[in-house]
Amino acid sequence: MRATDKKLKVACGANTGYLADSQWIGDKTPPTLCDVRVSPNNSVKPNIGAGELAEALNRVLPFTAKEDNRPILQCVKFAAKDGKLTLVSADGFRLAVIALDYDDGEGQALVSRDDLKGIANALKRAKRARVSFERSGDSLDGMSLILDTELIRYKWRSMDGSYPAYEELIPTEFNAFAHFDAIEAVKAVNSLKVPAFSKAYPIDLTFGNGKVVMANPDDKGQAELNADTGGEAIKVRLDGGYLVQALKVCGGMVDFKITNSYSPTLFSSNGYQLVAMPMMTSEASEQAKADREAKAKQAEAEAVTQAEAVAQAHTEAAVLADEQGDEATEDIEPVADKPRRKRKVREPVAVA
């Protein structure tokens, strides 16, 4: 590429064209804060695998928010800490998290998903990659994310704002789990999509006895998968499109864990985690209501038990104090009675 008379010369094979300044920008072109520098001899000391980072981006970008009124959730969070570079994305219904080995300091930045489009493909062709963070702007907490390859340097200034505390949204306790082939599961879900005749189609999943059973809610179809299963027999309903997307991103063998029919579910594969909210059904609503009432009764019973324990402790303390008082009285020797002196009583004096 060569600048000539304020135009950009673009050569592709035998074709050559010229673009004037701002000619490629339209009314709907979104603004960007990305700086791109191209150099055929960019010296790069790699600190992360280019292909590994490209795969990580492809696994988190699909789960950023599409709505313009949620700009923070339209970003991918990059956070380097404790020898890991963690990429996080969320859209309010799903949360994707993946951690890569990274031992080159600490930092974090929020980068818009629009600025990251095409970066994964560029990284697949790069031989070396380096990720770093640097201070930017006037604020003390302003940060920029820098990605260097042997040809190009990308620099994104972090968007201002606080990302949700995603760690609290990842479930840690489960009552049922299954380990199965994600590719076979995608085929099973696609076979159930045909009788649904709709883009939005729910899928009921139940696993136990070494099988994962997928079915349409109206019993129009059912598919079974061999799997390693454990725990209780719980049925959960997921959006079919969300389920297929989750399985494709996980790829290979996937672990699927659930707590109950209304709590967040967890897909995991080789360090990658995807949290997906289930669809609410009448059964799930009833179970949630029953669980809330049970927890309320348990909390009430624990409060009563605690109050009784406190009362019992007070009673025991009072009895112990009385016993100690009696023992102290017994230790005192009786003193002989002495005659008491009579006190003089003064007559009242009249005041004029």
Could you characterize the architecture of this molecule?
The chain has 352 residues and is α+β, with helices and mostly antiparallel strands. It has two domains: 136 residues, DNA Polymerase III, subunit A, domain 2 (DNA Polymerase III, Chain A, domain 2), CATH 3.10.150; 114 residues, Roll (DNA Polymerase III, Chain A, domain 2), CATH 3.10.150. Helix content is 27%, strand content 33%. It contains six helices and 20 strands. It has a nine-stranded antiparallel β-sheet. A four-stranded antiparallel β-sheet has the order 4-11-10-9, with no helix packed on it. Helix 1 packs antiparallel against helix 3 and helix 4 runs antiparallel to helix 5. The radius of gyration is 35 Å and the shape is extended.
Looking at this protein, list some descriptive labels.
DNA Polymerase III, Chain A, domain 2, four-stranded antiparallel β-sheet, nine-stranded antiparallel β-sheet, 352 residues, 33% strand, extended, alpha+beta, 20 strands
Helix content: 25-40%
CATH-level-4 superfamily name of the largest domain: DNA Polymerase III, subunit A, domain 2
Determine the CATH topology of the largest domain: DNA Polymerase III, Chain A, domain 2
Largest sheet: 9 strands, antiparallel
